[in-house]
Amino acid sequence: MAPLRCPTCGHFFEINYTPAMPFCSERCRQIDLGQWLDEEHTLPVDIEKHLEEQANRPFDDEDS
Ligand SMILES: [Zn+2]
């Protein structure tokens, strides 16, 4: 299959190698989610901090 382009980091990747479609990695997926869910934290530095905070929390139910 042709590689896809990650909408977060812009790298091309093989879709068979990621569990985080349509992103190249779980990290890029979470960055994208963070941008949508927390519009006050759109700067890259803030996103990194936000992800660190999320990593220390148990997963929330996204359907709730
Ligand atoms: Zn990516």
Automatic annotation (TrEMBL):
Gene Ontology molecular function, alphabetical: DNA topoisomerase type II (double strand cut, ATP-hydrolyzing) inhibitor activity; zinc ion binding
Gene Ontology biological process terms in this record: regulation of DNA-templated transcription
Keywords: Metal-binding, Zinc
Pfam families in alphabetical order: YacG (PF03884)
Coiled-coil features, chain-numbered ranges: none
Signal peptide start-end: none
Residues reported in the UniProt entry to bind Zn(2+): C6, C9, C24, C28
Record note on cofactor: Binds 1 zinc ion.
CC cofactor: Zn(2+)
Subunit structure: Interacts with GyrB.
Protein role: Inhibits all the catalytic activities of DNA gyrase by preventing its interaction with DNA. Acts by binding directly to the C-terminal domain of GyrB, which probably disrupts DNA binding by the gyrase.
Family stated for the protein in its record: Belongs to the DNA gyrase inhibitor YacG family.
PANTHER family referenced in this protein's UniProt entry, alphabetically: DNA GYRASE INHIBITOR YACG (PTHR36150:SF1)
Name of the protein: DNA gyrase inhibitor YacG
Organism: Bremerella alba
